Design the sequence.
């Protein structure tokens, strides 16, 4: 090898002769063969060295014999002028097949027992308010509502939710894309349904019916981001349990008959005002950023 520069070297005449003679060490021969794949000058030098050996003469005779024995290729008529090929129409998938794929991608948000469970939560709040006259129905709904989408996402994604999770996670449509698809489906069901239910309930000192939307979004994204480290179920227990502990902690120590007012006051501190909503918006943005950084973790099966 010439030009001692490890990045740029060429085959010398002596090195080519040793290679042609079969006396070059195996490692140097391998390096030479890799080099001539991308260097035409060195490839020509090595070819000339090989042709000058006895083996080169034998190879030349064999080549002439093969070319002489090969039949002459038939003369083909001139090809007609090429016309741009028409793109074949893509067959449409049957409506039933597309609907089945959509239901599978959406997950339990539109199938299974999760949707009836959300309806039971909404109906139970309405029943408490108008059936029993319970004044804290909206406060209780606002305390539970942010946990509902967290539970929905947890039940929608992971080995416990999909028998083919390991296969789906490795496909182009799986991983984080599938998790976000099911998250959107969960939010599309729970956000409008529970917000509308809150609007129908008496306020009784509780925050506005839509005050839980940003906290619900932030907790859901935070649960997904934590799932990339801890698994779906553990992340849901941490985020949902942490929220419930924060809003329900003052209730057990409240005086008799004041638990509803204490819960409404705690919810107002957590949900009402520009400061609280800005903090939840910032938490949602940070969770989304962490989720984007950790997206590769969703390409493999998550721990439960």
Sequence:
């Amino acid at each position: 090898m010439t030009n001692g520069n490890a990045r740029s070297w060429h085959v010398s005449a002596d090195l080519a002769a040793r290679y042609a003679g079969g006396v070059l060490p195996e490692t140097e021969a391998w390096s030479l063969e890799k080099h001539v794949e991308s260097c035409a000058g060195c490839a020509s030098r090595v070819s000339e060295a090989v042709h000058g050996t006895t083996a080169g003469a034998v190879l030349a005779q064999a080549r002439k014999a093969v070319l002489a024995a090969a039949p002459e290729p038939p003369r083909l008529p001139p090809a007609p002028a090429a016309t741009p090929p028409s793109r074949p129409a893509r067959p449409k998938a049957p409506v039933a097949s597309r609907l089945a794929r959509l239901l599978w991608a959406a997950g339990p948000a539109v199938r299974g027992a999760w949707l009836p469970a959300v309806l039971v939560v909404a109906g139970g709040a309405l029943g408490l308010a108008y059936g029993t006259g319970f004044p804290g129905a909206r406060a209780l709904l606002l305390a539970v509502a942010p946990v509902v989408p967290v539970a929905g996402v947890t039940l929608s994604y992971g080995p416990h939710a999909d028998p083919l999770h390991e296969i789906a996670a490795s496909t182009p449509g799986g991983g984080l894309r599938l998790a976000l698809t099911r998250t959107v489906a969960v939010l599309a069901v729970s956000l409008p349904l529970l917000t509308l239910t809150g609007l129908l309930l008496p306020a009784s000192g509780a925050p506005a019916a839509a005050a839980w939307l940003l906290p619900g979004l932030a907790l859901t994204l935070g649960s997904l981001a934590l799932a990339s480290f801890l698994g779906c179920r553990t992340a849901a227990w941490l985020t949902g349990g942490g929220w419930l502990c924060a809003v329900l902690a003052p209730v057990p120590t409240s005086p008799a008959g004041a638990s509803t007012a204490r819960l409404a006051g705690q919810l107002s501190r957590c949900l009402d005002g520009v400061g609280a909503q800005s903090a939840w918006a910032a938490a949602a943005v940070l969770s989304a950023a962490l989720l984007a950084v950790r997206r590769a973790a969703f390409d493999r099966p998550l721990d439960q």
